């Protein structure tokens, strides 16, 4: 029950790092106010390396090449990086 609740909150935490507006998904994350597209980058909670996103069966998994293991989504720190 707790996990479902936490996932629901995470889904809505996609806020623009510049203006804190909610980002819109149009194939990438887009801020209508800044008119920027953003990449969502995950960082390893243990070693702070950038995680590799693996798509498997419709679900995204995050793999750390330094730790050589998959990371639990709930512990990953996500950052939005401007693309254009
Ligand atoms: Zn913005
Ligand atoms: Zn790591």
Task: Kindly describe this structure.
Pfam families: Zn_ribbon_6. This is DNA ligase. GO terms for molecular function: ligase activity. Keywords: Ligase. InterPro entries: DUF1407/YfgJ-like_sf, YfgJ-like. It is a single chain. By secondary structure, the chain is mainly beta. The protein has one domain: YfgJ-like (Rubredoxin-like, Ribbon), CATH 2.10.290.10. The protein contains 1 helix and 7 strands. The chain has one helix spanning 2-11, and strands at 24-25, 29-31, 36-43, 52-56, 59-64, 69-71, 77-82. The strands form 2 sheets. The protein has a 4-stranded antiparallel beta sheet with strand order 1-2-3-7, with no helix packed on it. A hairpin with a 4-residue loop joins strand 2 (29-31) and strand 3. The longest helix is centred in the N-terminal third of the chain and has 10 residues, at 2-11. The protein is elongated and about 40 Å long. The N and C termini lie far apart (39 Å). The structure holds zinc ion (ZN) (2 copies). One zinc ion (ZN) binds at residues 44, 46-47, 49, 64, 66-67.
Distance between the termini: 39 Å
What is the CATH architecture term?
Ribbon
> H/E series, N to C?
HEEEEEEE
Using the coordinates above, name the CATH class. Answer: Mainly Beta
Radius of gyration: 14 Å
In DSSP terms (H or I, runs of 4 or more residues), the helix count works out at 1
Helix fraction? 10-25%
Residue ranges: pLDDT <50 for 5 or more in a row? 2-10
Structural class: mainly beta
Listed once per kind, the bound small molecules are: zinc ion
What is the number of E strands?
7
Report the mean per-residue pLDDT as an integer.
Answer: 87
Strand order in space, largest sheet: 1-2-3-7
Give the overall shape: elongated
Largest sheet: 4 strands, antiparallel
Keywords: Ligase
GO molecular function: ligase activity
Protein name: DNA ligase
Pfam families: Zn_ribbon_6
């Amino acid at each position: 029950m707790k996990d479902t609740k936490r996932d629901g909150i995470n889904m809505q935490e996609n806020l623009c790092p510049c203006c804190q507006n909610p980002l819109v998904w149009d194939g990438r994350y887009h801020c209508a106010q800044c008119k920027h597209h953003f990449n969502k980058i995950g960082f390893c909670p243990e070693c702070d390396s950038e995680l590799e996103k693996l798509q498997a069966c419709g679900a995204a998994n995050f793999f750390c090449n330094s730790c050589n293991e998959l990371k639990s989504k709930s512990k990953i720190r996500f950052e939005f990086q401007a693309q254009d």
